[in-house]
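**User:** Here is a favour to ask of a fellow structure person. Please take any protein you like and set down a full record of it. No explanation is needed for now; the record alone will do.

**Assistant:**
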Amino acid sequence: MNLNQLSIIGFIGKNAETKYLANGTPVTKFSVATKKSWKDENDQWKEKTQWHNIAAFGRGFAQVADRLVKGAHVFVQGELTTREYDRTIKIPAGKGKPIEHTIQQLVVELKADTVRTLDCSSSAGEQSAAAEPGAEDYS
């Protein structure tokens, strides 16, 4: 049996953006910060923030993207994925033309199945952003 399921709770770093693949599928992307706190050997509090790239595929996520804003407290669940692509960079070469160099870029993302806002302070009548397959026609 194999399992690739990740759940995180954190805060959105910048407003979600939705773009469309060549086949018309919407992809909503945003980042989420999680924080770990601990006391070191000198009894001093330390903190570390970890950033997670989120990619949510489908119409349902695009419909709630306007509520996935910077600072929102969210629960995200899905599959951890990696992909590589070639990226060309230009390296200055003194007075001559820049040298182009191709590097392989690695991207690690959480491919979201579920995204829910956890903010309790939303205005009366405003629903939280919630998108998951099979939940109300969001897919």
In short: The radius of gyration is 19 Å. Residues 6-82+109-131 form a domain with the OB fold (Dihydrolipoamide Acetyltransferase, E2P) fold (CATH 2.40.50.140). Confidence is low (pLDDT under 50) at residues 122-128, 133-139. The first helix runs from residue 59 to 64.
